[in-house]
Amino acid sequence: MAKKEEKTMDKIVSLCKRRGFIYPTSEIYGGLANSYDYGPMGAELLRNIRNLWWREFVNKRQDMVGIDSQIMLHPKTWLASGHVGSFNDPMVEDKKTHKRYRADHLIEEFIEGKEEFKDLVVEDLDIKEMTDFIKKYELKSPDGNEITQPKAFNLLFETAIGSVSGEKAKVYLRGETAQGIFTNFKQVLDSNRVKLPFGVGQIGKSFRNEITTGQFVFRTLEFEQAEIEYFFNPDETDWKKLFKSWQDSMWKFITEILGVKEKNLRWRRHTDKERSHYSKDTYDLDYNYPFGWKELWGIAYRTDYDLKQHVEYSKENLTYTDPKTNKKFVPHVIEPAVGVNRMFLMTLVDGFFEDKENDRIVLKLDKKLAPYKLAVFPLLKNKPELVEKAKEVYDELKESYVCDFDSNGNVGKRYRRQDEIGTPYCVTIDFDSLEDGKVTVRDRDTMEQKRVEIGKLEAYFLEEFEK
Ligand code: ATP
After folding, report:
1. CATH 3.10.150.10 given to domain 372-465
2. Among 57, 222, 401, 464, which has the highest number of CB atoms less than 10 A from its own CB?
3. 297 Cα nearest atom in ligand 1
C-alpha cells in the first residue's frame, strides 16, 4: 500500500470510529480479527443501502421476487453446491509466528508495481503454480520469516445442532445466500405466479473463514450479501443480451442510485482459467478502493449447474414447465452478487472529502444515503425559548425525515459534526426566528445559508431532496 493511500484509509477508519459508523467487534475484550460492529450512523447507512437495493431490484421489478432463507441450511446443500469440496483459499503459514496468510495475496503484494510481472494474473494460478512461484522468488511472510507451502483452506464455518442424547449434527453457516434461493426454487415456483424469465433476490448474512486481515469491512468473517438468481430459458432468451442488461442495471445502481463516481468503477472480465468450470462468462465490477481496484460486485452466467446439482443431491424434480409447449427443463441462471458492506465502504471512500479551504472533513454522501437527512439546532442551549422552538421544528420534521437534534457546543462545532456524518442540511433556530418565523438552512456541500419560513420547510426540503 502506498503511503498516501494508507493515510486516506486511516483517516476513514478513524472517522468511522469517531462518529459512530464502525467499531471493532468486542473491543473491550481486545477485539476479534476481521470483525466489525456498526454504530448508530453505520446502522442507518447500511439500512439505507440495503433498502435502496431491495427497492430497485425487488420492489420496482415485475419480474423479481424476494425471499429470506435461513443461515443454517441442510448440510447436503453445501455438498451439492461444491462448497464442502472446493470453497477453498490457498493458505500459507509463517513458520515462526504461525500467523496465516493467503498465498495469492502475498504474491499480489510481491508483484505490485514490478514490470516483469505486469501480465501475470494471480487469479489464474492454481496451488501448484503458487507453490512454484513462492519457491522461485523466495517469498517471505510480512514479518520476513519463511512460510509453509500453500494448502487449500476451506472457508465454510462449521457448527453443530445438539440433541438430548448428546449426539450432534454438523451444519454449516452459509457461505453465500444464493444457495437458499436454489433450494427454494420449487417453492417459489409453486406458490407464486412467476413465469420465466424471473429472478429471486435475497439479502442476508454470510460467513467465511477469511484469514487475510487488515482490509477493514472489505473482507470480514461475517458480512451481508445481496444476491440475485435470475432464471431463464436459454432457448428463448439471448443470454448475452440478458447479461449485458444486468450489467447496465448494476452500473446504474452504483452511479445513479448510490451516487458513486464513474471514474472509480471498472469492469474486469474473468479469464478462461480463472472462471469456474460451469460458468460461461463472469465479470467483476471493481471499485477503486484506497488499497487498489477490488471486486465490489460479481456477475456470472452459471448455466443450469446449481439447480442440476440440487436435483442430483435431493432427487427432487426442479424443472420448469413451459406453459406454451409443456416442455420441462431446468432453467439457466445469471447471478449478480454484491456485498452490502463493500458497498458501504465504497460510499464512505467515494464521499470522503477533506475541505482544506474551510478546515473541515465532509462526507459527501448521496442524500438518499445520509444517516440523518436533517439536523435541527437551537442557536444557544441555555435559552429555553430557542430550545422550545427548535424542538417544535424538530418534532414536525422528524415525521418525514430522519433528523438529529443537537444543542451541544457552539454552532460551528455542530456543523463540523454533521458534515462528518454527511447530513445534507442543518436548520438553526435563532432569536430572529422568534420574531420573523424564519430559520437558517445550511447546505452541507456549498455551506450556503438561506432563511426559510418555518411553515414552508417541508415544501422546501421536498424540493431539495428531489434534486
Ligand atoms: P473475493 O475474491 O474478494 O474474496 P469472492 O469472489 O470470493 O470475493 P463472491 O463469492 O463472488 O466473492 O461473493 C459475492 C460478493 O460478496 C462479493 O462480490 C463481495 O462483495 C462480497 N463478499 C465476499 N466475501 C466477502 C467478505 N469476506 N467480506 C465482505 N464481503 C464479501
Report:
1. no
2. 57
3. 18
Q: Where does the pLDDT of residue 304 fall: very low under 50, low under 70, confident under 90, or very high at 90 and above?
A: very high
**For residue 262, which amino acid is it?**
E
Question: 408 C-alpha to center of ligand 1: Å?
Answer: 41
What is the CATH code for 3-87+155-350? 3.30.930.10
The closest residue, in CA terms, to atom 26 on ligand 1 is 219
Pair type for strands 281-289 and 198-207? unpaired
Helix pair 3-18, 340-351: axis angle to 10 deg: 110
Check whether the bond before 378 is cis (ω within 30° of 0): no
Beta strand 64-67 pairing with 198-207: parallel
Q: How far is the CA of 358 from the centre of ligand 1 (A)?
A: 38
- Domain extents in the chain: 3-87+155-350, 95-151, 372-465
Q: If pLDDT is split at 50, 70 and 90, which confidence band does 213 have?
A: confident
CA angle 17, 18, 22 (to 5 degrees): 25
Asked if 298 and 336 count as a contact pair (C-beta separation under 8 A), the reply is yes
**Maximum Cα interatomic distance, the chain, rounded to a whole number of Å:** 80
Rounded distance, CA 222 to CA 13, Å? Answer: 18
Average pLDDT for 40-49: 98
Q: How far is the CA of 307 from the centre of ligand 1 (A)?
A: 22
Strands (E) located in 52-119: 64-67, 88-93, 100-102
**Beta-bridge partners for 267:** 285
| pLDDT for 166 beyond 80 | no
Q: Which of 342, 343, 344, 345 to mutate to test the pocket of ligand 1 (most atoms within 8 A of CB)?
A: 342
Strand ranges, E, within 304-448? 320-321, 328-329, 332-339, 352-355, 360-363, 374-378, 403-405, 425-429, 438-443
Band of residue 278 on the pLDDT scale cut at 50, 70, 90: confident
